[in-house]
Write a structure and sequence with these properties.
alpha+beta, seven-stranded mixed sheet, 49% helix, 744 residues, 26 strands
Length: 744
């Protein structure tokens, strides 16, 4: 199998309620593995087996559905990193469609005014009359024809595409309503005696165009935050060529190029600092508000802002490899994926259209034939039913929320790779953390210094550091780092000698020093029997203990452990406050695991778990009926990340772990998991609110439009039905936009 994926950018606007049929058509083709339509961006994501189906065959299916492709992108990020801020708005696909809808609305509105003035019904209502002249009704027909044709073209085109796919959607409904009213009115003008529908049709088209225009504006606003990511990369960079610095387009930068970044400038692309030091604002990428100090050898990310110093950086990543490209890739993939609730809404929109047509026909038959009411009255109600039931609001209910949610998560350092992860995070019963590198720093640090002789804590630490500075062992580095943090002076040792498996020795100012384990101390005659009680307590906590002695006796002990991250305590407390259990899964021995679990007050822990058994442990928890999230950073965590309901990778972890997870934490901060759950719950609230509104609106509006309240003298006319329908879509999008106010 030759598995490939591609994003096909459609040339025309796709209504949000006609996506599921296109997906069905694609999925029926042999070789198509997955298909998802993003109606927000007018992009079709297709995953396929290139050995079974060609890209041209996939495009042909879309063409049969009435949609042409204006571009294709194998790399979703690349399309966004071509400096879109250089393009004027009229080159933007969505902006052009929005402008076209706006133009059609204003033209239709201007022509609708004389239609209203010339209409006998309107003159009756407002108590005025115009001098009659020959051809009034023909002028009305001409003006209404311009509106029905020019203003209705977007709907007719959409209806034709929908019918090609066998879909009965909003465009079909609107077209049916406008054409039925227009033909009836034309018949009343030229064939039979009846009240025409010209003013109703004109206002209906104008209101529908207004609704679509406002809806497009709102939807385009929902994608604006993601587009802001593409503007982070500056259009030009300062390339160092010999002794000269020249400004070149960022798109021409290659790996290995040396760039100059002046104070206050944006870093144009990922690289490594070769000269200089500065603080860099990475908030726009990681969400971390505090500037990060950068010096020689440190990595820098394209799109971040340099602080007070000049930096020379060597480019080490370009194109798809850069951090920003990967972020956009993940966000776009999440927006292309569909949560279960959206798939349900897509189906509901299709069936709602079918219901609307059936109810519309039934309304006409009931009032016109059974109740023997005037045909104009029956047709008015039927058209109103068809118009008011347009399922646009239902089609927009979920994708607008998903788009905003994934973008909001990305801006806060959480990359959601699949929309179902957002939906699933709210249901979590337990979060299981890997220990090393997740709850702990993954590096040894000094936790205790115990005096056992005449030296104080600083002297013990200093003497040990004098020896350990010569070693590259992780324990040695922990001791040296602790001494440096306390600003202790580390003298140079003489006659340094490593004692394999036991420790080291050396001389400092002629004084012999030993640092090592209890076995070394006993061999040198500094100790006998068991370690002191206070040291045994450290052993019981799973800590590594280094003893320090001079040439005569034992003076002290230094305990080290994999340091618990300060933010881990806050993360555990936040998760418990959210009603989520917290567990730890580690391959370390039970004593170490028990100490960490006790320090963090975890609900439970699993120790001495072999790498291959981690996913089994997750499954055992799931078999107990728990929804489980796994948080890890290593290769051995990958199977467990896949097994979990929600797999969460720490961003600094291995590529395998990141690939296996559904969510990536860019800031390597476990506190973001509680924020993810908060966002997930807020997202699902918005989805439910939108679905309740969209379905509840139809449940009330359709019977009203069908004339249920007619005995009370209340009739809902087509133009008011169109206005209510348009407002329902705008309300759904506006409600989704409120998600941006969530505090994470």
């Amino acid at each position: 199998m030759k598995k490939e994926s591609i994003n096909l950018v459609l040339k025309d606007y796709m209504p949000p309620d006609c996506t599921c049929k296109i997906e069905d058509k694609l999925l029926k083709k042999q070789g198509v593995l997955d298909a998802a339509v993003n109606s927000i961006d007018d992009v079709v994501y297709v995953e396929y087996d290139a050995d079974q189906i060609s890209l041209d065959a996939i495009k042909h299916v879309l063409h049969q559905c009435g949609y042409k492709c204006q571009g294709e992108h194998h790399d979703m990020a690349h399309q966004h990193l071509e400096h879109e801020h250089h393009k004027a708005e009229h080159h933007d696909h969505h902006a052009r469609m929005e402008q076209d809808m706006r133009r059609r609305f204003w033209v239709s509105l201007v022509i609708t005014i004389p239609v209203l003035i010339l209409s006998p019904t309107i003159q009756n209502w407002f108590g005025f009359s115009l001098p009659e002249f020959v051809g009034t009704k023909y002028l009305l027909f001409l003006l209404a024809s311009v509106i029905a044709i020019y203003g209705g073209i977007p709907f007719y085109k959409g209806a034709a595409k929908s019918l090609k796919t066998g879909t009965l959607d909003m465009m079909v409904l609107v077209s049916l309503a406008v054409i039925a009213g227009y033909l009836f009115s034309a018949g009343a003008t030229f064939v039979f005696q009846a009240v025409d529908f010209y003013w109703e049709i004109s206002t209906l088209v104008a209101v529908l165009l207004l609704g679509h225009w406002l809806e497009m504006r709102a939807v385009r606003g929902a994608t604006g935050a993601l587009k802001e990511l593409t503007k982070l990369i500056p259009p030009t960079a300062n390339k160092i060529h010999g002794d000269h610095v020249m400004e070149v387009p960022t798109s021409e930068i290659q790996k290995g190029d040396l760039l100059l970044v002046r104070p206050g400038e944006k870093i144009p692309i990922d690289g490594v600092v070769e000269e200089g030091s500065s603080s860099v604002n990475e908030a726009m990428i990681s969400g971390e508000s505090k500037p990060v100090n950068k010096t020689v050898g440190d990595d820098v990310i394209g799109g971040t802002i340099n602080g007070e110093g000049s930096l020379k950086i060597r480019v080490d990543k370009t194109g798809e490899e850069t951090a920003l490209s990967q972020i956009i890739n993940l966000v776009k993939a999440a927006q292309a994926s569909k949560p279960r609730s959206q798939k349900l809404a897509d189906r509901a929109a299709h069936y709602l259209t079918l219901i609307a047509i059936i109810v519309g026909i039934g309304t006409f038959v009931f009032w016109g034939i059974i109740m023997n009411q005037p045909m104009v009255f029956a047709l008015t109600l039927a058209i109103t039913v068809v118009v008011i039931a347009c399922p646009h609001a239902l089609g927009l209910a979920i994708p607008t929320v998903t788009t905003i949610s994934t973008t909001l998560a990305a801006k806060n350092g959480m990359l959601v790779k699949n929309a179902e992860a957002t939906e699933g995070a709210r249901l979590l019963d337990m979060v299981v953390f890997d220990k090393t590198g997740t709850l702990t720093k993954g590096e040894f640090g000094v936790t205790d210094v115990v005096s056992l002789g005449g030296w104080n804590e600083n002297e013990i630490l200093t003497k040990a550091a004098v020896l350990e500075v010569n070693s590259e062992h992780v324990i040695a580095r922990g001791i040296v780092n602790a001494a440096q943090e306390k600003k202790l002076k580390i003298a140079k040792s003489e006659s340094f000698a490593a004692i394999p498996g036991k420790g080291a020795s050396g001389k400092v100012n002629g004084e012999e020093i030993f640092a090592g384990n209890w076995t070394l101390m006993m061999e040198k005659g500094f100790a006998k029997g068991e370690p002191p009680a206070e040291v045994n307590q450290l052993f019981e906590q799973g800590k590594t203990v280094i003893f320090v002695a001079d040439g005569e006796k034992l003076h002290g002990a230094i305990a080290l452990a994999d340091m618990i991250r300060d933010e881990s305590r806050e993360a555990v407390n936040a998760l418990k406050a959210a009603g989520v259990q917290v567990a730890m899964l580690t391959g370390d021995n039970r004593r170490v695991a028990e100490y960490v679990a006790k320090e963090l007050q975890l609900d439970t822990f699993f120790a001495e778990v072999l790498p291959g058994d981690k996913s089994t442990k997750i499954k055992e928890l799931q078999d107990k009926g728990l929804n489980v999230a796994m948080v890890g950073d290593g290769i051995n965590d990958a199977p467990a990340l896949v097994q979990a309901n929600v797999g969460i990778a720490i961003g600094a972890g291995t590529d395998v772990a990141v690939e296996s997870a559904k969510v990536v934490l860019v800031k390597n901060d476990p506190r973001d998991i509680a924020r993810l759950i908060t966002l997930s719950r807020a997202t699902m609230r918005k989805m439910k609110q939108n679905l309740v509104w969209a379905t509840g609106y139809n449940a009330i509006a359709i019977p009203m439009a069908a004339g249920v309240l007619q005995p009370l003298g209340i009739i809902l006319r087509p133009e008011w039905g169109a206005l209510v329908m348009a407002l329902s879509s705008i309300i759904v999008v506006a409600n989704a936009l409120l998600l941006r106010r969530v505090r994470l």
